[in-house]
Structure formats: C-alpha cells, structure tokens
Amino acid sequence: MPTLTLPSTIESEVEKHSLLRHPFYLAWSAGKLTREQLAGYAKEYYFLAKNVPAVMEAIKENLPKNASDATRVTFAKHAEEEREHIELWERFATSLGVSEKELEAYEPTGTVKEAVASIVEAASEGFEEGIAAMYAFECDLPAISESKIDGLIKFYGLRSEDAHAYFEEHLREEQHLCFWRDLLRKVPSGKISAAVNAARATVSAQNRVLDGVCEKYCPGMAR
C-alpha cells in the first residue's frame, strides 16, 4: 500500500468529518431550513469569513526567509482574494434580506467565536501548521459550494448572482489547493505530525461553527 502524502492525509481527515455530513448542511441539502435559519447562518458565518484574512496573515508572519519570490507573490495574491471574499459573503447575506449594517452589528455566538479563534490559533503555531490549516479549510469547499448552490436553487428559489457569487468563487478553488499541496509536499518529516494536528483542529472548528449556528437558530438540530 502506498504511503499517504501529507495532502492526502489531510484530505482523509477532512473526509472523516466532512461538513457535508453536519446536520445543518444535511438540512440545507434536503430543503428543510427556513429562510430565517439561512439568514441566521449568514450572520454567524460572517464572523469566520471576516477572519480568514487573519489566518492568512498568521501564515505570512511565518513564511520561511528562504521562500521564493514566486511563492511570496502567489501567497499575496491568494491573501488578497480572501479579503475580497468578505464582500462576496455580504452579497449572499443581502440575498437573504440581511443588510451589511446588520451583519456588522451582529454578535456571533460564543461557540462560533471560540471556533474561529481556534482556527487562527492553529494557523499561528508555525508555517507548516498554517498551510495545513488552510488546506483543511479549503479542500472540501468545491463540493460544499456545489451542494449549497444546488440547494439554494432547488429548495429556496435563490437564483441571483448575489446569492451564488461566494459559492461560485469557491467552485474554482483548485488554484489555491494546488498552491497549498505544493507547499505541503515540502514539509519536513519532523513537522508532519504538527501539520496534521493543525488540520484536524481546523476541521473540528469548522464543524463547531455550524454547531453555533444550530445552537441559536436550529436548537433541535444537534449532532
């Protein structure tokens, strides 16, 4: 049996705890959420969307001094795209009747705050931990985004560009994923365990974000 690479090990960890099997996303895919619950999700998840740039900043702080110019340029490009995604999420929220002002004023649950903080913390442990955390965060996004778009159209009648822009963007995640895979394949053996632990922490935290949504908006939808 071939030895698993670090990217494939992380993918395996993500698959074990896939967000697509979380009760909230299962309900989304079955058309069992109300518009109010979707709007609540948009408000809670905004806290995570706003903090992804902080994860990228943590990785930037730990970029190896010998990182190539090409790596630095590509990283900066991806970091800028993560900042741009915040506006795409605001558009999604608007499609559900949530204004940008309401998003900014919204106080997320303690569960969501703690989960997001743990993702940033995992990425801050070191460069290898940071790139593993981002790979874990992003590698399932194309499948998740496809499922979300399908549900928005099929069950909720949300067909506008604003409703889909954030998810359409993440259908095209492969460029980011290739970048992370290339870096992960170069992780020294002594850092592999720490990188896998950061990935696990990230996947766990992503699930807890959805737990926080359920706590407030779907109290009967427990894992």
What would your notes on this structure say?
This protein has 223 residues and is mainly alpha-helical. 76% of the residues lie in helices and 0% in strands. It has helices spanning 6-16, 23-29, 35-61, 69-95, 100-105, 110-124, 127-138, 141-156, 161-171, 174-184, 192-217. The radius of gyration is 17 Å and the shape is globular. The chain starts with 5 loop residues before the first helix and ends in a 6-residue tail after the last helix. The model has no long low-confidence stretch (mean pLDDT 96).
The total beta strand count reads: 0
Secondary structure class reads: mainly alpha
Give the % helix. Answer: over 70%
Number of helices: 11
For the structure shown, list the relevant keywords.
223 residues; mainly alpha; 11 helices; globular
Question: What does this entry show, briefly?
Answer:
The protein is mostly helical and 223 residues long. The chain has helices spanning 6-16, 23-29, 35-61, 69-95, 100-105, 110-124, 127-138, 141-156, 161-171, 174-184, 192-217. The protein contains eleven helices and no strands.
